[in-house]
Amino acid sequence: MNFKLLTLAVSGILTVGVATSATAVITTSPVRQSTDLTEFNSVHSQGAIAQNVEEQTNIRVYEKASPAVVTVDTDKSNGSGTIISPDGMVLTNAHVVSAGGTVNIILSDGRKLVADVIGFGEEGLDLAVVKIRGQNNLPTIPLARPGSVKVGQQAFAIGNPFGQFQGTFTVGIVSRIDQQRGLIQTDAAINPGNSGGPLLNSSGELIGVNTSIFTRGRGGGSIGIGFAISADKIPAFLTAVREGRAPRVAQARSPFGNKSPQKVPLNGPAVSGILTDKSSVLPTDNSFFDLYSFEGKAGQQITIEMKSQEIDPYLILLGPNQREIAQDDDGAGSKDARITVRLPADGTYTLVANSYQARQSGAYTLELKASAPTAPSRAILQEEGALAAGGPVLPSDNSLYREYTFEGRSGQAVTISLESTDFDPYVAIFGPNGRLVAENDDGSDSTKNAFLTVTLPATGRYRVIVNAYDASGRGRYTLTVR
Q1: Which position among 195, 222, 279, 446 bears the catalytic label?
Q2: Distance between CA 294 and CA 325 in Å, rounded?
Q3: Which one is catalytic: 126, 232, 329, 336?
Q4: Is 195 an active-site residue?
Q5: For residue 157, which of 94, 226, 108, 55 has the smallest C-alpha distance?
Q6: Which CA distances in Å does 91 have to 72, 80, 118, 209, 255?
Q7: What is the CB-side half-sphere exposure of residue 152 using CA atoms within 13 A?
Q8: Is 5's pLDDT higher than 60?
Q9: Does the annotation count 95 as an active-site position?
Q10: Is the pLDDT of residue 44 over 80?
Q11: Which pLDDT does position 405 carry in this prediction?
Q12: Which pLDDT score is estimated for 457?
């Protein structure tokens, strides 16, 4: 997943709430005997009333809107969506459904229905509409009046973070409005899986479609900076969908606009650059960036360093498919950035030379070093099998599983992949002491196949558990340990 460039395709959320507390004061002074509660009420009732009003607003918004919030599930990814018409039109993000495959909609009451994609946004607009088959009386969420959103107003998000917590409700405010890009910034907690879900006002109206977050570190979650596509952009898009003018296939999108990268060689001289107010701007945090590209080979280990005495460097590396491979802030010591990674495939890689802070200007140097490609690692274990009725099940959720073992040594790096086109794979590895070493559900935003890279903590026999994400999982799979 991208972090500065995070596109939400699978979402799991941390609930945000507002808590208040009362502090009891113990005193040795004589207790005043009085039956007059006027003073007590004047001190305490205002806070209680305010808390009650806030809670009642939260409850009212959730009860009004949540029946029309759905999970959008495809063969490649999942996210959230909003029912916008009684006959089953669902508004979501284009990146949730753009990978193709069957689209399933899971309603708030648990019903699972099939849907068809009927339109995508144009010119980088990350919106799509899917139509649920055979429905005519579904609950809906209305759009807010154009131009009605104000910084400081309450904002509410509902969605299915990490594809596991459908109906999660979080509360915050509108933190900022980016009129130029049509984005609403909010501190209501949103995470991967909330993509495509609604951002609401206190009337339960749709003010935005949650689409991305700004976070830090691999696997990072919400740090209170999320973005929603403003509802002001939705009416024209819906009109195009209803009139049949919207594209039926996803439009190519790039967070870098039409900017072309500068080609640089591996193991060449250091490149000098400068970020200024005339540089391109990263939409998520308004930081300046330059783009570079280089040709890489599968198995090459590369080290990229960005150094500066004038800015805090930040590096982002994208693969040939434009998906994020790595990013770093201070990996080279001090404030300098360094990425060291083994390339997964042949092709053209894109490098974003960026600053950590918004609108930070200054000069920098960039250096790319690479080793010769190495041969693909040998498979320690390669198995094909099937999860079928009658097989062993995990007591925790009644999901089917199979178990395999291999001998490993302390410090050995292994990768484990579990692939299936029949079910949502889940893989786990246990050490010689029987303790869990690592587990994974979805290897990336774009796939439900499971993938792990681990360094073995001890020498001995390891167990790999091939599992389905839930009790419904059945079908064939391929397990590879390298």
Answers
A1: 195
A2: 14
A3: 126
A4: yes
A5: 226
A6: 10, 9, 11, 8, 22
A7: 0
A8: no
A9: yes
A10: no
A11: 93
A12: 86
